[in-house]
Amino acid sequence: GRKGTLCFTAYAVSIVIAVGAMAGVLPAYQAMLLLNWSFVLDLLAKYGLRFKADYLHFVLLDDVGVMPILCVTLLTPGLHPNIRRLALTTPLLSALMSFAQICKNHAVLPPWVRDFFSPLAEPVARFKVMRLRGFAEVGVGFVLIIGVFTAKAAPFSALIYWNVMMMRYMMSHWTQQVFRELDDVLMPTCGRIPGVKHLYALLKTKLYGLVDPQSKNAGRLCAIL
């Protein structure tokens, strides 16, 4: 219907501009802003606007539910344009998946559009994109930390972003999988160095306590959101 056409148009425009921004032709800030509004429009079309606890629960569990918050953290002042351009990867991948889903189910669209984008909406393709997006999300987080120490990003941006990532970890299998794979790479290396081995184990335990549902500290930092 009209909602599907509106979301299709919003995603199509924002994806084109985001690709142009990643190529360095268009400004990354405006591209991030348009992607953010596309996600908000998509969520409003699906769930409307209600002020209830269960409404927020359903929205956050949606594939693009966290994206508006994530985009806002990357729109904060003080972020270097190149970091923001790199950070477009995560919302762009989410937008592509949602766009493909709309193309697959929106009967008004021309057949060639549905045939071209529908394969991206298939489960196997979506799983691959979600895995790639998980690595992109974590990668951007580490780039923000480096940016703080090199005066390319504001500490507030990194703090808010990692708060969102904590929430993402508690809700997303793909984010958890990325951290498990990173641990599988780092643990053998750190395990060979006696002092570093204990420090790494302590850091891992402390950080996991922030997202472990059974821990008293779980989600404590997320309160800033």
Helix and strand run: HHHHHHHHHHH
Query: For the CA atoms, what is the radius of gyration?
Result: 19 Å
Oligomer: single chain
Low-confidence stretches: 221-225
Describe this structure in words.
- The chain has 225 residues and is mostly helical.
- 74% of the residues lie in helices and 0% in strands.
- It is globular.
Topology, pairings included?
Layout: H1 2-22, H2 28-47, H3 53-61, H4 67-73, H5 81-87, H6 89-105, H7 111-117, H8 123-149, H9 155-171, H10 173-190, H11 194-209
Keywords for this structure?
globular; 225 residues; single chain; 11 helices; mainly alpha; disordered C terminus
Condensed summary:
This protein has 11 helices and no strands.
